[in-house]
Amino acid sequence: MLLQVNDMLHYTKSLMNYLSSQIANGRWEEVRKALETSQSISSMDEAHEQYLDQLLNKFFLLDKHTTVIQYILTTFNHIMRYVSQVDELVTVLARKHTSRSSSLSNLRRSSLGRELTGDKDEDQSEHDEDEATGLQATTAQPALLGKEHKQLNEELAKSASEFKRQSHFLVVMLTAMHKHGASPHVAEILTQLNFNYFYHKQEHHHAPAVLTRAAPR
């Protein structure tokens, strides 16, 4: 589980660092100087519009980037689902631990009370019956929680698998865009996102397929 969380954290940080770097780069200084030296409102508007167009392109917000942004949004949906499932799993495990601890504690107090009062022989049958009931409660509740635990583990595995698959195809697509020279700025995000081929191991085997692959669901 920790490995999956680390993968998702790396993915999120890489995208955030890329977006932040595009805003904080030297291009804004050029635009600011152009705005300060402009002789008319129209020239200021033109400089500002050019800067915004570049940001839209680098943020993959143009129409030509529809499939890319769909993959990005899909991967984040899987991340959010995974985090929600982890929270739910922690709740189930905590409830399971609390239930078992409470049942065992009640049994211990009952046994200790009988020993202190000296009614051990007289109430032995009643005590045995209570103990059996308590043990059944102790085992029945974890059994129900165990099914829920198993189901959550299966859902976690599915979400992690879908995230890995979608993030892989995103890297394949960005790699293809970079190779074709249409979007040179993707080199930076690939360096951060796919450092040491973190997601993408065999790009030459998958790159052609991404051109005809349908958008993620």
From TrEMBL:
One of its GO terms (molecular function) is gamma-tubulin binding. Residues 104-142 are annotated as: Disordered. It is found in: Cytoplasm, Cytoskeleton, Microtubule organizing center. Residues 120-132 have a biased composition (Acidic residues). The keyword Cytoplasm applies. The keyword Lipoprotein does not apply. GO terms for cellular component: gamma-tubulin complex; microtubule; spindle pole. Its main location: cytoplasm. This is Spindle pole body component. It comes from Globisporangium ultimum (strain ATCC 200006 / CBS 805.95 / DAOM BR144).
